[in-house]
Amino acid sequence: xxxxxxxxxxxxxxxxxxxxxxxxxxxxxxxxxxxxxxxxxxxxxxxxxxxxxxxxxxxxxxxxxxxxxxxxxxxxxxxxxxxxxxxxxxxxxxxxxxxxxxxxxxxxxxxxxxxxxxxxxxxxxxxxxxxxxxxxxxxxxxxxxxxxxxxxxxxxxxxxxxxxxxxxxxxxxxxxxxxxxxxxxxxxxxxxxxxxxxxxxxxxxxxxxxxxxxxxxxxxxxxxxxxxxxxxxxxxxxxxxxxxxxxxxxxxxxxxxxxxxxxxxxxxxxxxxxxxxxxxxxxxxxxxxxxxxxxxxxxxxxxxxxxxxxxxxxxxxxxxxxxxxxxxxxxxxxxxxxxxxxxxxxxxxxxxxxxxxxxxxxxxxxxxxxxxxxx
Length: 375
Ligand SMILES: NC(=O)c1ccc[n+]([C@@H]2O[C@H](COP(=O)([O-])OP(=O)(O)OC[C@H]3O[C@@H](n4cnc5c(N)ncnc54)[C@H](OP(=O)(O)O)[C@@H]3O)[C@@H](O)[C@H]2O)c1
Hints:
The protein is built from 13 helices and 16 strands.
């Protein structure tokens, strides 16, 4: 029935989309046909798919995929929520260093509820909440079937949007605060992109550890409200970029010490401002490039300030030995959420409005909180 509906839908669309549907359906059908001896099949899945790399609003479609086999070690998960992160957009655009083979289903993290389990699965049961850990491709769909090892069981006592978003951004914030220089209570950090989820997590984890934090945001209407919101999370100082057009930015620091560590997810002028705040011998970690502008460093920053420039990429970190502890770190972060020591702004959007959420995530409708799809 679902297969027939996919085929009928496909006939009504463009030829390239028809090919996409055929390929995905074929891929899924092949698994289903092999499954005839098995008693368990997943329900059909509604999925955001793309066949070509390109602008996500042009290349993504929502289609229905047929049921697949739930093999003995598999777990079928009914997805509850999944965010649209900048890296999801970059993967679809084809500008990310690692990207799934097309046709592909979008998304990389999320939370779901176990729907059914294969005969050899003992540690998970229907009704459990799970997240893919490490995160993995294809979370923008209503049902996912993957090996039991992919899934990390979490407590169900949290809002689903936090469980859906805990891995990519909060874990990045935690690692970047711990992995570059040893910070002690009383030290300071500086960051741009402070309104991002990573930025909001850095503010709160730093504050919780007694580390001062200096924050840079884009100029916008209503910037005073944004400043107040970040201060209520624990920001010591919040500056718009234009407020930092002064000869000596450090004169604006008041009692806050000169930052030893800086975080840059924007590039261009916003990265130069982070560098200006850093103390002698300081380090700037670049982990994003939202402005798509390069990082430019003056010669004097190297010679007279001896600054160090580093980079962080969670996907690479996930392949290191330290990542064996990542599930413990995720439980720690979810614990902070439970204790209300970690919170950030999100907007839950019904799956039917996926393309509106995508437009917001693409910045086509101005600045918006993190868009989280609710299935
Ligand atoms: N390297 C890694 O492993 C890793 C891991 C996680 C995240 N990241 C990166 O971290 C960054 C933040 O991710 P997120 O999910 O936390 O972000 P988010 O919550 O989706 O927020 C997006 C942020 O980007 C800013 N922004 C958007 N377009 C911009 C532009 N053209 N110029 C300057 N700033 C712009 C927004 O500022 P406004 O509030 O002013 O709109 C907001 O602060 C992204 O670059 C992401 O790729 C990297």
